[in-house]
Amino acid sequence: MKVEVKKIALENYKKFPSKSVELFPRTEISGRNREGKSTLQDAYLDVLTGKMANGTEPTSIRRKENGVEVPKVDVVRELTLAIDGKEKVIRKITKQKWRKPRGQSEEVFDGNETSYEIDGFPAKSKDYTEFIQSIAEPSTLLMCSNPKPFLDTLQKSTAESRKVLEKMSGFDIAQFMEENPQYSHVEEITKGHSVEDTLKKLRKELNAQKKKVDAKNTEIAYETNRSVEAEDTSSLESKKQELNTELSRLEEQEQILEDSAKGYDSLSYEIRGLKSSKDGLVSKADKELKDKKAVIMNVYYDLAKNKIEKESAIRMLGMELDNHIKAGQQAKADLDRARQDYPRIKEMEWDDSGLKAIEAETFNDSDTICPTCGQELPEEQVAELKASFEEKKKFRIETELTKKETWESVKQNQLKGTCDLGNSASAKLKKTNEEINKLQSEISTAQDEVAELTKQIEEEQSKFTELPESVDMTNDEEYLAVTARIAELEEKLKSFDDVPGKKQELRIQISNVMKQISNVDTDIKIAQAAVTEKEKRIAELKEELKSLGQVQADIEKNIDTVLNFSIQKNKALAEKINPFFHHFQFSFLDYTIEGNPVETCKMICNGVNYFNGLNYSDKILCDIDLLRGLQALNGLNLPIFVDNSESVNATRLPRVEQQMIILRVTDGDLSVKELQ
Fold first, then answer.
1. If the chain, 676 residues long, is cut into consecutive pieces of 10 residues, what is the mean pLDDT of each piece?
2. Rounded distance, CA 201 to CA 190, Å?
3. Which residues contact 589 (CB under 8 A, 6 or more apart)?
4. Contact status, residue 110 vs residue 97, Cβ threshold 8 Å
5. 84-90: long-range contacts (C-beta < 8 A, 24 or more apart)?
6. Which of 669, 645, 674, 673 is nearest to 31 (CA)?
7. d(Cα 49, Cα 78) in Å, to the nearest integer?
8. Please, which residues have CB within 8 angstroms of residue 379's CB and are 6 or more apart in sequence?
9. Strand 3-13 vs strand 108-118: parallel, antiparallel, or unpaired?
10. Torsional sign, CA 115, 118, 119, 121
11. Rounded alpha-carbon distances, angstroms, from residue 52 to 41, 46, 149, 659
12. Cα 644 → chain centroid
């Protein structure tokens, strides 16, 4: 959805008794500090989000005189919006409520109430809220219209800012877990806590477990070095010696069988080697297939990124082309008007009938007769009358001549103005036509590049589709040869006279003798009470040590799992979000001095953190890119206010699809103008 603000009208709002400002696709609002530039931004956000530009509630908006709020006047802020090209006028009116308590002569203030209008019709609060929500949620509108709320969230909590970006981007952790099943038990490990808190907890548990292991090793060393006295066990030792002799005899027989069965073992060994080679061939083929797919996908993603960038450039050029077309149309209209007006003005002539009538006037001799007595007036009086007549006639003629000169001067000025307008319009028309031709050429070139990229993308998709989902070894000569050799050797192995069975039988006998020896050893240990107690305790301690070691290994495994999960998850999040931002990039992972990853959320511009060392000019450009990117994530196109823009060279301000309203501090009064 695209929204442009066409006009902001205010009454009794902050410093303005009454103010109406018309805005353009690229508008510069300039003036001295405290002239009301930021007030216009506050009013815009107040109407749409109920917040000021600094993110606070609009608590002090009523106009003041001599530091005191003007009572009993309505505070009005009105926006004329173009929503997807359709004009909408919305008003927000704050009125004071007054009441007269019983028994008092004066009214007392009883709070404020707010009413709303849409296109001149009264609207209920519910209807007004639904209208705003049809554009976007007020919180989303605020965050996408003003960088401060997101930046404040980013400074306060990187975790909260990450949640905002994940929600806006549609990053689906469930999908990520489905695509990476090796992390399926991460949720069981974290139990709903953050990765950082989980790692702190696990490392604390690991340190505690290591201390338990160290303590158990110390206890085992103590028991091992502790001296004890054993009872006389000579008869048991003699029996043990006999059993050992029998064991030696059986082991000699086993050796003889081993020597006679070398062929069997050799074949078995060769078969195991061939099976290992067979498995290696499958693994190698599988890796080669995966590598091919990875190469194709890397090329695909690079092409897709380039295509998106080219399409964005085409849209920017198209907007610029539209602006030049409009400018050319205006210049053509001015030129046509000048061509029509110039001959019309030139043919205009002064009407001198009045002058001629005055010049034709003569002195009336009847004026020399006295109206009272009817006699001729004295000569000196007649002379005075004639002189007066001629003087007045001269004055009237001079007056007419002055009018004619003034008219001629105005005519010449009109001709000059019309000529200047025509020359200016002609020059502007020529320039805009040149720019239009240039932009059309650039757009055509870019469109060709997009078409070529689209072709290349389709080719890469075709390459990927042609590859099999899994390795096929049915035509691999080496694999087939190894498989055939294994079958051949396994068939030969069957020719041996049950060597494994005989060896198994002999192993049972040996095992029985060893069990008897073990029983004798047990008897010896029973006889040696102290020794037995000691060895039993050591065995118990070693078993406990084994359990402790397993717990330690499990904790270490969980730490590795959580670390790898955090790295891969944040890599996927960055790949999803960062294409929407150009002047800076989000970094979601940091590392401690020890090299351990820590989840974070940072805005990095040219290698510099937004909050640490970035100059004010680049901060302004980051703010613009932030709003543009957040709007893109939410499918919105909203006006972007650029405050304190005097720190940024006008040539560095980017051309964006959104309406841009630039607030700039100057030495003059508040003024609004359109920027090309």
1. 96 95 94 91 95 87 92 96 96 94 87 95 96 94 91 91 90 84 85 81 88 88 70 71 81 67 72 86 86 88 90 90 91 89 86 85 77 78 84 89 90 89 90 92 92 91 86 86 87 67 77 85 71 78 87 88 86 92 92 79 93 90 94 94 80 86 91 89
2. 9
3. 566, 567, 570, 571, 574, 597, 598, 599, 600
4. yes
5. 84/1, 84/2, 85/2, 87/6, 88/118, 88/119, 89/117, 89/118, 89/119, 89/120, 90/47, 90/116, 90/117, 90/118, 90/128, 90/131
6. 669
7. 13
8. none
9. unpaired
10. negative
11. 8, 6, 10, 19
12. 22
Structure tokens at 56: 């606070």
What separation in angstroms does the CA of 503 have from each of 259, 299, 511?
12, 59, 12
Cα dihedral sign for 351, 352, 353, 355?
Answer: positive
Please provide the size of the chain in residues.
676
> Is the CB of residue 209 less than 8 Å from the CB of residue 549?
no
d(CA 448, CA 442) in angstroms, rounded, equals 10
Where does 261-370 have alpha helices with state H? 262-347, 353-360
Backbone angles phi, psi at 68, to 5 degrees: -120, 135
Alpha helices of 528-636 — where are they, by DSSP H? Answer: 529-577, 616-633
Q: State both tokens at 535.
A: 């060895």
Q: Residue with structure tokens 């919006």?
A: 81
- Smallest CA-to-CA distance from 7 within 89, 70, 117 is with 89
Q: Specify whether the CB–CB gap between 118 and 129 falls below 8 A.
A: no
Helix (H, G, I), strand (E, B) or coil at 564: helix
What's the start-to-end Cα distance of the chain, in Å? 24
Give the residue from 80, 8, 87, 91 showing the smallest Cα distance to 42.
8
The tokens describing 501, both together, are 């069975």
Q: How many CB atoms lie within 10 A of CB 204?
A: 11
Tokens 């330690």 — which residue?
A: 552
User: What whole-number distance in Å separates Cα of residue 263 and Cα of residue 64?
Assistant: 108
Spell out the long-range contacts of 118-123 with Cβ–Cβ below 8 A and sequence spacing 24 or more: 118/88, 118/89, 118/90, 118/91, 119/88, 119/89, 120/89
Location of structure tokens 């051949």: 488
